[in-house]
Write a structure and sequence with these properties.
Layout (H helix, E strand, L loop, with lengths): L10 E5 L6 H15 L3 E7 L16 H40 L4 E7 L2 H8 L3 E7 L14 H9 L4 E4 L8 E6 L3 H12 L7 E7 L5 H16 L5 E5 L3 H11 L4 E5 L6 H6 L2 H8 L4 E4 L1
Parallel strand pairs: 1-2, 1-4, 2-3, 4-5, 6-7, 6-9, 7-8, 9-10
Antiparallel strand pairs: 5-10
Length: 292
């Protein structure tokens, strides 16, 4: 049997911030934790602030004036740090209270200093599933680009990552994007082995040449695997560019959750030129479960 989609032990860890995606991340993580019967932890990270540089002000200030200014800057930096920590605690408390009342889920809270990707990687051994937002609180929504931290996270961690959409809706129908390769074959095995998606309506999509006998065999294999695991998948084999076909199928089939392979860890070319993963994340307004 393939390695399970979610490890048998560990928690669901949701990265919470003050962005528009924050509530959706929390509710999607609670949904996943309930389906997995797993503990839920909410994480808020604080980027380490830069200390004031000891600039050469000798031409403008006396020695005493320089020391006084640097001391005041240090005090201001400390005050900002304390305010950021207090804001983070308040945010986590509000989310915990909301989940307890609306979902009946009791979550633990954790606040850490450091970058999000590094923090998640450090915590990864005890995690079954990460839940993050498509964009963070500092992202420019008008550009349509993904949050910079999200791409770092997806390239860094090894556990499954569930990327939340802007609004939460409990998934009822999911789509597996399948290409017959080793990664997506593993994705099918993971879906079959996990309780996360059991009982949901299943769609299976391969983008390619329907006349290709090898592709048809791959698609038949995936369909058989899902059926053996208790799903009733409808299989589609469509031509075109993967990112465009997947995005169109999500809308046409009423998909609530997309399952697909994540980035590789050493594909320099995709880091420079982008990838199907990036394009689909940008275009699909639904949660995406990314597997390796």
């Amino acid at each position: 049997m393939s390695q399970p989609l979610i490890h048998a032990e560990g928690r669901v860890l949701a990265a919470i911030d003050a962005s528009l995606y924050g509530p959706s991340v929390a509710e999607l993580a609670a949904w996943a934790a309930l389906r997995l019967s797993a503990p839920l932890e909410l994480l808020h990270t604080l980027e380490r602030g830069l200390k004031p540089a000891a600039a050469d002000l000798s031409g403008n200030l006396s020695l005493g004036g320089q020391e006084d200014l640097l001391a005041r800057l240090a005090d201001l930096d400390e005050q900002r740090s304390k305010l950021a920590q207090e804001h983070g605690r308040m945010l986590l408390d509000q989310v915990r209270s909301h989940l307890a009342k609306s979902c009946g889920v009791e979550a633990k809270a954790l606040q850490r200093h450091g970058g999000l990707a590094d923090t998640l990687l450090e915590l990864e051994p005890g995690v079954r599933l990460f839940v993050v937002g498509k964009r963070g609180e500092h992202a420019n929504f008008e550009t349509g680009r993904l949050g910079g931290q999200l791409e770092h996270v997806l390239r860094a961690v090894h556990r499954p990552v569930l990327v939340a959409a802007r609004a939460f809706k409990a998934p009822q129908r999911f789509l597996v994007a399948f290409d017959g390769g080793a990664t997506t074959r593993r994705c099918v095995g993971m879906v079959c082995a996990s309780p996360l998606l059991q009982g949901l309506a299943c769609e299976l999509l391969m983008v390619g040449d329907e006349g290709d006998a090898t592709q048809r065999e791959h698609l038949a294999w995936a369909k058989a695997q899902l059926e053996a695991a208790g799903f009733a998948p409808r299989a589609s084999h469509l031509p075109g560019h993967p990112e465009a076909v997947i995005a169109r199928a999500v809308g046409d089939l009423g998909i609530d959750l997309l399952v697909m392979g994540a980035y590789g860890h050493s594909h320099i070319r995709t880091m420079i030129l982008g990838s199907t993963t990036t394009q689909v994340l940008r275009s699909c307004p639904i949660p995406v479960l990314l597997l390796r």
